[in-house]
Design a protein that fits this description.
Radius of gyration: 40 Å
Helix content: 10-25%
Structural class: alpha+beta
Shape: elongated
Distance between the termini: 104 Å
Number of strands: 28
Strand content: 35-45%
Oligomer: single chain
Length: 546
C-alpha cells in the first residue's frame, strides 16, 4: 500500500507539471506553491528559484494551484492510479492506456502506462511504450525510471519461457506474495531450471530425482527441458540447504547438481548441464558363468545394474548364457554390479567399472549348487526388563527342513537364527537383520561337533547358566553398546550342536529386553532333492505297506 501511495503522489506531481504552479499540502498543514518535480522518495518544489525538498511520507496532496486546469490524459492518469491503489494490480490499466493514446509523446503518460503493464505481467508491451521515450522518461523520473527499465527487462526474460511455465510462475508468485510470512509454520519454496545435455539439447524426459530437505515436494515438467520444483519447508529462517538433482538413468554420466529455492518468489535456478552418453559410448562385456568345477552353466540369467545412479537402475536388458555359459552385455561407461543367477544355485556378483577408453575384461562368475539343511530347533523367548527374569513361555521345537533356496542363499529358521550359504559352505547366523530391535548380543554359544559332554535332549533351556561348564566355546557375555548390531556366524556340518542365548533391545525408553534361549542340532546337509528323498524314506519306514 505504501508503494502504491508513493506512486500515486508521484503521478499527481506529474499531472501538475504542465500547469504554472502546484499546491503541495503537508501533514503539518503547511502549504507550498510552486513548480513540483518528483525525485525518488521525495518531491522538489521550486519557489522563487530555490528548490524546497519534501519527503513523500509528509505529503498529503499535490494539486493544481488556483485557476490551473488538467488535460484529459492527466485526469485519466490520476483516475487510473486511483483504481490501481484501491482495487489492486491491473485495475487501472485501461485508463492508463487511454491516457497514453491521447498523449503518445508525453513521458509521464508513457511511464505510468508502462509501469502498470509490467505489474500486470506484460513486459513486451511495456517495453514498446516506454522505449521510444526513454531519455525523456529518465529526465522526468530520475529516481524511478531505472527501476522501471530493470523490471521490464526481467519480465521480458520471463516471457521467453514456455507459456505454460510462465502462467504457473505467475500463479505461484501471487500465492507466495499473499502468504509469505516469517511467522508461518511452513513456507512454500520454489525454483525452476532448464536441464540440457553437453550439446545444449533439452532433456525432455525425467532421468533424475530431486532430494531436498522439505516436505510435499513436487516436480513439474514443461517443454524445452524446463522443470519446476516446489516444496514446503518449516520456515525461511531454518533454510535447510540446497536441493540436489540426482541422475537415475544409465544413459547419463552419474552426477549430482545442486540448486537453491526461495520462499520470497519462484527463483530461476539457471541451466543445469548433464552429460548424455551416445550409443557409440557403449562397451561390450563378455560374461562367463561356470560351476565350482569350471564347467559352463547354460541358461543362467545375467543382470547388470548401475551403482553410480539410482539404486537398482538397470544398466542393460538381462541376458541368458548360451551352451558355452557365455553372454555379452552392452554397457555405458560407469560403475556397474553384474550378477548371475540360476535355479538351484547360489548367486554370484562382480563390481565392474566400464571406461570409454579401454575395453573391459571378461568376467567369470562361479555359481555353487544350493545346500539344503534339516535342523532340530528349540527355543524359549520372553520379554523382561530384568536380565535374570525368565519363563518357559513360548517354547517351540521340531525338525525344520530349511532350504537355502532363493536368490540370496539364505533361509530363516526361527528366533533370529538362520542358515546362510557362502560358496560351498553352510553357515548358521545368530542375530537377524530383519528384527526391529536396535541391538543384538550372543551371550554365549557352545559347539559340540564330534563328541558331546552333554546330550542335545539334556540341555536345559530354562537354566543354561547352570550347565555352562558343559559347553566348550564361549563368546563375550553381555549385550553390546546400545544401537550396535552384533551377529555371529559359524560354519557348520551335519551333527553340530549349538546352544546359547540371544539378547535384543527395543528402542522404547525403558529398553525392554527380549531373551531367547536356544538349542540347535544340524541333522543333515545335502541337496534339496536328497533331503526330500530321505524324508520320504523315513515316512515310509514308519508306515510300512500292508
Amino acid at each position: 500500500m505504501a508503494a502504491h501511495l508513493a506512486c500515486f503522489v508521484a503521478a499527481t506531481a506529474f499531472v501538475c507539471q504542465s500547469t504554472a504552479e502546484q499546491r503541495v499540502t503537508l501533514q503539518s498543514g503547511a502549504v507550498i506553491e510552486g513548480d513540483v518535480r518528483f525525485d525518488g522518495d521525495r518531491i522538489l518544489v521550486t519557489v522563487g528559484g530555490a528548490e524546497l525538498p519534501a519527503p513523500l511520507a509528509e505529503v498529503v496532496s499535490v494539486r493544481a494551484a488556483e485557476g490551473g486546469e488538467l488535460a484529459e490524459h492527466q485526469r485519466l492518469v490520476l483516475r487510473g492510479l486511483e483504481a490501481e491503489l484501491l482495487q489492486g494490480r491491473g485495475a487501472g490499466l485501461g485508463l492508463l492506456k487511454e491516457a497514453h493514446r491521447l498523449a503518445p509523446d508525453d513521458p509521464g503518460a508513457a511511464f505510468w502506462c508502462a509501469w502498470s503493464l509490467v505489474k500486470a505481467g506484460q513486459g513486451a508491451a511495456a517495453h514498446s511504450i516506454v522505449d521510444p521515450h526513454r531519455e525523456r522518461v529518465l529526465e522526468a523520473y530520475p529516481g524511478e525510471a531505472r527501476r522501471l527499465f530493470d523490471a521490464i527487462e526481467k519480465r521480458q526474460e520471463l516471457e521467453s519461457l514456455p507459456a505454460l511455465l510462465l502462467r504457473r510462475l505467475d500463479e505461484l508468485n501471487r500465492q507466495i506474495d499473499g502468504t509469505s510470512s516469517l511467522l508461518a509454520e511452513n513456507q512454500l519454496h520454489a525454483a525452476y531450471f532448464q536441464l540440457v545435455d553437453q550439446n545444449g539439447t533439452p532433456v525432455g524426459e525425467t532421468p533424475f530425482r530431486i532430494r531436498s530437505r522439505g516436505s510435499n515436494a513436487s516436480l513439474e515438467a514443461y517443454p524445452e527441458g524446463y522443470y519446476l520444483h516446489t516444496e514446503q519447508r518449516r520456515n525461511r529462517v531454518s533454510g535447510g540447504g540446497p536441493s540436489q538433482l540426482e541422475l537415475t538413468s544409465t544413459a547419463y554420466r552419474a552426477s549430482e547438481l545442486a540448486f537453491s529455492t526461495s520462499p520470497n518468489a519462484v527463483i530461476d535456478a539457471g541451466v543445469l548441464k548433464v552429460f548424455r552418453h551416445s550409443v557409440a559410448d557403449k562397451r561390450e562385456v563378455l560374461v562367463r558363468v561356470v560351476g565350482p568345477d569350471g564347467a559352463p552353466l547354460a541358461g543362467a540369467s545375467v543382470v547388470a545394474r548401475s551403482t553410480g545412479v539410482k539404486r537398482d537402475a538397470r544398466s542393460a536388458e538381462p541376458k541368458r548364457t548360451d551352451t558355452g555359459g557365455e553372454c555379452t552385455l552392452s554397457l555405458y561407461p560407469g560403475p556397474h554390479q553384474v550378477t548371475a543367477s540360476l535355479r538351484g544355485h547360489t548367486q554370484s556378483g562382480h563390481e565392474l567399472g566400464v571406461s570409454s577408453e579401454t575395453k573391459p575384461r571378461a568376467i567369470v562368475l562361479t555359481l555353487h549348487p544350493l545346500i539344503a539343511a534339516r535342523a532340530t530347533v528349540e527355543w524359549i523367548s520372553t520379554k523382561n526388563s530384568d536380565p535374570n527374569g525368565f519363563s518357559l513361555e513360548g517354547m517351540q521345537k521340531g525338525s525344520i527342513l530349511a532350504y537355502t533356496g532363493g536368490s540370496d542363499a539364505r533361509s530363516r529358521v526361527a528366533c533370529g537364527i538362520s542358515f546362510e550359504q557362502k560358496d560351498d559352505q553352510m553357515n548358521l547366523k545368530f542375530g537377524d537383520d530383519n528384527w526391529e530391535y536396535h541391538g543384538f548380543a550372543v551371550q554365549w554359544i557352545a559347539q559340540q561337533a564330534d563328541s558331546s559332554k552333554i546330550a542335545f535332549e539334556e540341555i536345559a533351556l530354562d537354566d543354561l547358566e547352570r550347565q555352562a561348564e558343559d559347553f566348550g566355546e564361549r563368546s563375550t557375555p553381555g549385550p553390546p553398546p546400545f544401537g550396535v548390531r552384533n551377529r555371529v556366524w559359524r560354519e557348520v556340518k551335519a551333527g553340530d550342536v549349538y546352544v546359547g542365548k540371544l539378547l535384543s533391545f527395543s528402542n522404547a525408553p525403558h529398553r525392554e529386553m527380549t531373551q531367547t534361549a536356544f538349542r540347535v542340532r544340524v541333522d543333515t546337509l545335502g541337496s534339496k532333492e536328497a533331503l526330500r528323498e530321505d524324508q520320504t524314506d523315513k515316512r515310509e519306514a514308519k508306515s510300512p505297506k500292508e
